[in-house]
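the three lines:
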Amino acid sequence: MPDLAAPLIAWYRRNARELPWRAPSFGAWGTLVSEFMLQQTPVARVVPHLEAWLGRWPTPATLAGDPPAEAVRQWANLGYPRRALWLHRAAVEIRDRHDGVVPRDVEALLALTGIGDYTARAVAVFAYGDRHPVVDTNTRRVIARAVAGRSQPGSPAKADLVAMNALLPADDTDAAVFNAATMELGAVVCTARAPKCEACPVASMCAWRAAGYPDTGDDRRRQARYEGSDRQTRGAVLKTLRDASTHDVPQDAVIPDWPDAAQRDRAIDSLIADGLLEASGGHLRLPREV
DNA sequence: CATACGTGGAA
DNA sequence: TTTCCAAGTAT
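prediction for all of em together
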């Protein structure tokens, strides 16, 4: 297997984008918040929200001290607002179980609400410098192409962690930079559509290129249509609550003209079930209690 | 393990 | 206009 690490590390040191979480001593809490926001949301949309968030809540304890409603409001239009709720819960767990310090251990990180295989290792590696494979969608695409000779990755699997682990340099710092470099390559060069192979530092050892860029198919499942979906309806309901000048809103006043009343009611019920809304006396509000 | 879960920019 | 895609996680 070709050694991707050396050329990728060298490329990254010259070409990495300057992003807030890459500043020296950005801090584990900042890293954790950034990773929550980056789950399925593009970098460009995250940056301003991240800075506002950390300006308001510079530590886990400060966030944990405010009601979850404030987290959901501050999340604004970043999407997947359950992440705001989960980040708040994680902050409470960090305050109560870890003395307010973001844990370093992957197992401890995995035990926090909203943190999975990717985020746990991203924090351990990027905030603390430990040696673990960090696998996101960019990494999976780079490995699929450069190593497996496929045009797109398969479905996410534990095997991805094993594959990335096998590519990791022995040195902790090199391994951390290699993780970041692989993600960066996937984000800006080895992109899902129209990859810039002429600018790729590992083109000469890329299995997909060597095979003549075959279309090996795409196992990834397509996203459901958003227009007219329950997700869109939930988004409209929650936006109404976020933007309301009062904390309580009469339920009848929430998207009253939505084309499908049953869909609206279903959205409200599911938001309550998820803990993103509370109902009380015919009114709705963002969650006051953890 | 397949599915639900927001939002907006680019092709 | 429609489709694709974005530093995933929980159930």
